Structure formats: structure tokens, C-alpha cells
Amino acid sequence: MSVYPAGKPFNVGTLPVSSLHTLAFSEYGNPKGKPAVYLHGGPGAGSSPSMAEFFNPQRYRIVLFDQRGCGHSTPHAELRENTTWDLVADIEILRHYLKIDKWLVCGGSWGSSLALAYAQTHPRAVSEIIVRGIFTLRRRELLWFYQEGANWLFPDLWEEFIAPIPPAERGDIISAYHRRLTGDDEKIKIVCARAWSRWEAATLSFSPNPTRVEDFSDTDFALAFARIESHYFVNAGFFSHDGQLLDNAYKLATIPGVIVQGRYDVITPAKTAWELSRRWSQAKLILVNDAGHAANEPGIATAITEATDNFCR
């Protein structure tokens, strides 16, 4: 696995983006390097210093931030004023605040969704795009992982996932979880947040990672992750129509890109990455044959790092 040491951030700060929300951000690498922003997944997962490791710190100025309601951004697990388009606006606010003209935009899973939405809205602010584990929040993608599809591969884990939901409500798992995650019973909210988060953590990579499952079970993490994800999912990503990100891929025509996709990604199956590559002529699709969804799987990490190396030459 080829990655760079992240080192310590050279700039850490907070940025109010509304009367309610304040973002936490950090910068790594070379203050005079090629600007790049990494968009974390979820929505609601928060950023990690490891996300800076895909970039040569001598060549890149790497920006990480926690999206609304998660990580160190405040208020924690907040759903008000928290939509895709609020986040797209936040990225622009942060770019202007940091006095960056154009930047490479990189993101995986939900971060790929947000990267595409941002680039389609502000193409002149984007120099290149690198996306991994492509997710566009189409109804069929959500149903695959949260209703019927992935459960055929992981029946044991699925049984744990649906356990908090009464059989009578299992015809719409996402909505059933959302009701509980936004309800008033704090005990049920925590139980559901952990079950939701553990389901994704347990299926994230080609090989099981028990440590990741326990990390995702942390109460603070799980509440933000599960509440914000279910909020976005019941609202279909706040898109105008199902398939908006793919339909608007023509807006990326002038932006070079790399699409990295694990062949055995169960959370965001390869079909969506394939469809995006057919509509985005400037993008190169890299299918990693021995990987699932996680960014730190060796083949995926190497492909992302090679892409950032190529774009800074």
C-alpha cells in the first residue's frame, strides 16, 4: 500500500457557515503546494488525518474538514440546515476563506456524491476530481444496501442490523430507523445508532475488520453517523430527481478525473461507478479486483495515491 505520512497539520481552525453551524477544518502538507480538499463519507462520518496520507505533503496543500453535524463541527448530530446543498455551499465558503482559486476535489462513498454535486455546481473551482466507491443516492442503491441485496451476502450481520426494528416495520428499514433516530427515546436512539453504524462497518472492506466495527460503535460517532445518514437517505439526498448526479455528469466534461472502485464493494456496488465512467469522458475508471469499499484497502489506497501523484506532476 503506497501512501504518505500525514504529519501534523500546519493550520487548524473553525469557520462559522451559518448562524447554527460551525465547521472544523485542518490543513496538511505544503502551504504553497497544489490545493486539494478531501471530502469524507457518511454523510456524518467526519474526517481523519489518515485522509491526508493519499497526497504527497511536499507537493500538496491538503484541506480536511468535518461536514455539518459530525466530527469536531458543531452542533453535534444536528439535522437542521443540513442538506447536500448546504454542504456544497460550505465547500465554497471554505475555499474562499482559505484564499484558494481552484483545487483538486477527492472523496469516497458519500464523499464521492458530494464531490460530484460540488463540481457540477462549481466546475470552475475544480482542477481535477478523484472519487472512490461511487454513491449517487439513487433509490435502487439505497434499497440494495438497506432493504434487499446485501442481506443475501451477509445474512448473519443483517439479522443483527434489523433486530431493533419490529417485523411489521421492516418493509421500509430506512424510514423505520429514521423515526427512532429522530425520536425522543434516548435509549432506543443509541441502540439504533449503534446497530446502523455496525452494519456498515462490518461490510465495509473485503476482509473483516473488528476494530473498525468497535470504533463505529462509539456512541458519539454512531449518533452523528446514523442520524445524518438516515436523514439524507429518507430525503433522497435532497436531489431534484433520482439519478441527478449521473444525469448531470456532462457538466464535468472539462474536468479530468479518476474513478477508483473496489470490484467487491458491497456498500456501493461497481455498477454505479461503471455508469458514471460511461457518462464522464475525461475520467479514467480503475477497478480494483481484490477490494471492497474501504479507502485503506491496499489496492484502493495505491490507486488513489497514484492518481494524486499524477495530478501534481
TrEMBL record:
The keyword Plastid does not apply. It is an enzyme of class 3 (hydrolase). Its EC number is 3.4.11.5. Transmembrane segments: none annotated. Keywords: Aminopeptidase, Cytoplasm, Hydrolase, Protease. It is found in: Cytoplasm. Gene3D superfamilies: alpha/beta hydrolase (3.40.50.1820). Residues 37-296 form the AB hydrolase-1 domain. It catalyses: Release of N-terminal proline from a peptide. It holds the Pfam family Abhydrolase_1. GO terms for molecular function: aminopeptidase activity. PANTHER family: PROLINE IMINOPEPTIDASE (PTHR43722). NCBIfam families: pro_imino_pep_1. Belongs to the peptidase S33 family. This is Proline iminopeptidase. It comes from Candidatus Doriopsillibacter californiensis. The gene is pip.
